[in-house]
Specification:
Layout (H helix, E strand, L loop, with lengths): L1 H10 L3 H28 L7 H6 L4 H19 L6 H23 L3 H28 L9 H35 L6 E2 L3 H12 L4 E9 L5 E8 L5 H15 L5 E8 L7 H13 L6 E8 L7 E7 L6 H14 L6 E8 L5 H15 L6 E9 L7 E7 L5 H15 L5 E10 L14
Parallel strand pairs: 3-4, 6-7, 9-10
Antiparallel strand pairs: 1-2, 2-3, 5-6, 5-10, 7-8, 8-9
Helix pairs in contact: 1-2, 1-6, 2-5, 4-5, 4-6, 5-6, 6-7, 8-9, 10-11, 12-13
Length: about 450
Amino acid sequence: TPMIGNGLAIAQANSKLGKSSAEAIIIGFLMTLTISFVVAMLTPGAEMTSQVIARGDPNILDLGVAVFSAIAAAYALARPTIVGAVAGVAIATALVPPLCSVGISLAYGEYEVAVGAAILFIINVVAIILGAAITFRLMGVTAKAAAKGQQRWVYRTVGSLILTVFVLAIPLERRLEESIRRGKPQPNTYPLTVAVMEDLTNFIDASPRVELVAAGRSIRDTQRVRVVISSTDLLPYSYANDLADAVRSSLQDEETVVSVHCLREAWLDYSYMFDVADSLKEVFEEYPKITLAAAGRSSTASIDSELTLIFNNPDPLPEELRDNIASVVAEGVADKRVSVNFLTLDPSGLDFASVQTAKETVEEYFGESLKVEVIAYGRPIATHEGFDIVAVLSSQIGIPLSTLNDVGQVLQENLGDDFKVKAFGMIDPWQPPEEEPIDDTVLE
């Protein structure tokens, strides 16, 4: 092979052989790169495989593989009793895959993968040439004498190759350390082709409340396709059957087994509260004592479309105000199923020590296992009759009713038996941003 020929040229100080071998390497490089690029461009609906992607993430171990491949190939060529094809196979497996990965990655616009595969190809070429040269020298396959000009050519060539190895070895070593830290990813599925994914996406997009989560072929059985979707509504089984038929039609394979898994969304997006916050402020202008403390889904809500608004006010909310609030929120919510519930608390009359005790009790109860905060605290107005105090807790996940009852009992014990306390949980609620105090100091 040309790489082994270069190694032999260095071992024998034969610059003419080195030049012809280098020309053969360049021609082979350009042909392989062009063919792989054209084939990738002409292959419709294909995806980059995991093998191509893997070539784009080389590390220092690949350098060692290339060196030992070169040693084995050079040894096989130097021994007439060993079949020479072994050397060709060893070299081809080290050079052709990364170079084809470069062409395929360029065709798909994955330039980062292309750079990594190019580095792997270069390091393999250099390592094979050096490994072959060292092997030939150790086995005595050298020239009897060499002119000074030929010796200078050997020194320059070997020096350039060694410098290239050191320059590329640094990022390869760092990539190995990074790979060890993050671990080797193991895919659960093989990707579907671009054409199949487009057909699948078009089918799902026809249902506005359905989203595609994941799709791919099983790594254990390539005749099985798994599709995971999410929906805000309960879907009929006929939808899964229709989706499976669409996938089989796109694959043009009626024997493919398509399993469809549906995840029902268990939360609402409260980002719309930021959009309606200004409108709510206008509604509250006539009621300066009323403030909105939080908005979100209760931990114990029977359905995920219940929106609870927490207000601080010493009196019950006027019916007109409740209607205006519900109207404003309804206009800003994309999901028209949302129903609005109101919880009004009166924080006045409760001392600071009581509030601090409640916060410390909740923090101690849950510890570091779950981040729970007291976001509202006061006497309930017109709701939750029989309770003296309601503590509204915020968490990233729903708190079970039994846990909320237990928290209420603990709060009641810490605050004193004179208070009957109820803990009310909310899942990641929206809270209005705190307004910075205005410095009205007169400037001199």
